[in-house]
Sequence to fold (82 residues):
Amino acid sequence: MGAGTPATAVRRGRRSASGALECEVLAALQRADGPLTPREVQDELPGAFTYCTVVTILRRLHGKRVLTRTRQGLSYAYAAVR
Fold:
């Protein structure tokens, strides 16, 4: 990526800014009654995002300390920090 080029995520051949996707993921987690796995987050998002894209966004948000995560089986379940 060059300077000034926004990070993007692919959604069925179209690209959306990663900031917009982060907002969608965070909103889905805030609406949830409890922590969600990446697959559950993927199911809550409008449009068709790949599992890997959802995991990447969740990891980024966790790194920014916007989300908490707990081990659930082989994966993690994520929740918005309240």
Notes: DSSP finds three helices and four strands in the chain. The CA atoms of residues 28 and 44 lie 6 Å apart.
